């Protein structure tokens, strides 16, 4: 039990750090009060943990421990996100016609089946997005339109 209790978890570290602020240096029974907030820790373990923390902070401030370069890893993530997305392509009349056939066959909402069986060039997400735009278009007043749309194509 003593060995397990000497390992500090992230939640315990958070409680410890908050308690260090609450019970500042010079507070009577500081280590015991902090240990009361950490059921698996003794006052001695809390005090030892504090001294280890202060030693680590001193090493960092002395330049003995290099700080991680978080900006570089954040930039890499940002670039990965940009690379992962492909440019949007317009639906062809053939794809839209196959979408409508799939809609008649599988019904509204079964985008996965429509994508797999009918519009094999598009993912289920793309089919769902196309359907959303198609149904919005159907609700609009098409008489006052200035130009035609792929959504005007029907199976009839």
From TrEMBL:
One Pfam entry name: Myb_DNA-binding
Keywords, comma-separated and alphabetical: Developmental protein, DNA-binding, Nucleus, Transcription, Transcription regulation
Occurrences of domain SANT (ranges): 86-139
GO molecular function terms listed in the Swiss-Prot or TrEMBL record: transcription cis-regulatory region binding
Domain HTH myb-type span(s) in chain numbering: 91-139
Domain Myb-like residues, every copy: 1-54, 83-135
SMART domains: SANT
Annotated Gene Ontology cellular component terms: nucleus
InterPro entries listed in its UniProt record: Homeodomain-like_sf (IPR009057), Myb_dom (IPR017930), Myb_dom_plants (IPR006447), SANT/Myb (IPR001005), SANT_dom (IPR017884)
GO biological process, one term: green leaf volatile biosynthetic process
Compartment list: Nucleus
NCBIfam families from the UniProt entry: myb_SHAQKYF
UniProt name for this protein: Uncharacterized protein
């Amino acid at each position: 039990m003593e060995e397990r209790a000497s390992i500090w978890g992230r939640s315990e570290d958070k409680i410890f750090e908050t308690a260090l602020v609450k019970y500042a240096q010079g507070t009577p029974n500081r280590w015991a009060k902090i240990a009361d907030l950490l059921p698996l820790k003794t006052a001695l373990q809390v005090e030892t943990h504090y001294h280890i923390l202060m030693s680590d902070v001193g090493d960092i401030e002395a330049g003995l421990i290099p700080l991680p370069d978080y900006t570089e890893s954040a930039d890499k993530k940002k670039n990965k996100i940009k690379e992962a997305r492909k440019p949007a392509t317009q639906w062809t009349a053939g794809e839209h016609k196959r979408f409508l056939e799939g809609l008649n066959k599988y019904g509204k909402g079964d985008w996965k089946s429509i994508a797999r069986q009918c519009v094999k060039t598009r993912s289920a997400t793309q089919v769902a997005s196309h359907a959303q735009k198609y149904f919005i278009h159907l609700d609009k007043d098409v008489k006052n339109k200035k130009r035609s749309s792929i959504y005007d194509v029907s199976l009839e």
